Amino acid sequence: MLTDHTIKFNKLLTPFSFLYGIGVRFRNQLFDWKILRTERYDLPIICVGNLTVGGTGKTPHTEYIIRLIKDRYRVAVLSRGYKRKTSGFLLADQRSTSKDIGDEPYQMKRKFPDILVAVDADRRRGIRNLLALPENKRPEVIVLDDAFQHRYVAPTLNILLTDCHRLYTQDKLLPAGRLREPMDGARRADVIIVTKCESYIQPIDFRIIEEDIHLSAYQELYFSRILYGELEPVFSGKAPKRTLKGLASTTEVLLVSGIASPAPLEKEIHKYTEHVTSLIFPDHHAFDRHDIQKIQTAFKRLTSTSKLIIITEKDAARLRDLPSLPMEWFSHLYCLPITVGFCMDREKQFQELIVKHIDTRIKNHPILR
């Protein structure tokens, strides 16, 4: 069985979850009654989001879609830009930092420099600004990152992610649990992806989860897993090329992470060396000089002649911006990129779903071309 039945909830906070639920349900009802207005657009708008706070894998799934369609269409990613130091609409360029646009948009702009990456907490305003660009730059497809609850915009394809170890059907509303809204909000999804699965799904797990989620007739269910890439120097050209498989059994690793769910990353690195020291920071943590000193102290405690620091791509975005990193880190600091793959031999089917959706929308609105 995939899901973790040891999920713990804070029962003392249940009354507050009840009150929170009343507020969220009322807000959703205002949209359903059309008292609050939802904007619809002619071009394909694909939303990737979830019902929970915490990591379900939105960024790697968004990047998967970008990678799939970027050579076929003019693509824009629109994000809120969580924890950025700016406000309003901002179109990223090569000079943008994680402080300007947020961790995830910065990471996507670095990976895909030829696509449009924009941030705006007001997604309607963000879309208007993207559509006001010159015709040769105007996007044909917009991917909304983490906008499932942003109901002022109606996506043409709504993709909902849920962690296989903590399905939204087994969670509770904030603050007792992690749900941002009641689980019946999943009815707005066209596609549901159960993320972070093991490489092979037992057929019985597929059936159990499908029954648990109670798919509607219009919904499709997929299972995905994390795929780890090769180690990349955070500062290109400063550190030698290394691979996880090439690590010696005596190699000592200092794993530094400021993400919502670091456990899968720890598990992956433990496959290659037993000598792993973890420093866990909160999700989207803004590293400061005290954190750098803490990391430096932990790194100096490693006694092996073969030692390195491994961080996530998102953490790399924040650390690159710091002006006072110890010089000795430059030859020891690596990030571990991740992508996603689909289980049950359904990757091609998912790709066809995305491309067909976009092609159909563009065909029905040829002015988009």
UniProtKB/TrEMBL annotation:
Pathway: Glycolipid biosynthesis; lipid IV(A) biosynthesis; lipid IV(A) from (3R)-3-hydroxytetradecanoyl-[acyl-carrier-protein] and UDP-N-acetyl-alpha-D-glucosamine: step 6/6. It catalyses: a lipid A disaccharide + ATP = a lipid IVA + ADP + H(+). It comes from Parabacteroides distasonis CL09T03C24. Transfers the gamma-phosphate of ATP to the 4'-position of a tetraacyldisaccharide 1-phosphate intermediate (termed DS-1-P) to form tetraacyldisaccharide 1,4'-bis-phosphate (lipid IVA). It is an enzyme of class 2 (transferase). GO terms for molecular function: ATP binding; lipid-A 4'-kinase activity. This is Tetraacyldisaccharide 4'-kinase. One of its GO terms (biological process) is lipid A biosynthetic process. Its EC number is 2.7.1.130. Keywords: ATP-binding, Kinase, Lipid A biosynthesis, Lipid biosynthesis, Lipid metabolism, Nucleotide-binding, Transferase. One of its GO terms (cellular component) is plasma membrane. Belongs to the LpxK family. PANTHER family: TETRAACYLDISACCHARIDE 4'-KINASE, TETRAACYLDISACCHARIDE 4'-KINASE, MITOCHONDRIAL-RELATED. ATP binds at T52, V53, G54, G55, T56, G57, K58, T59.
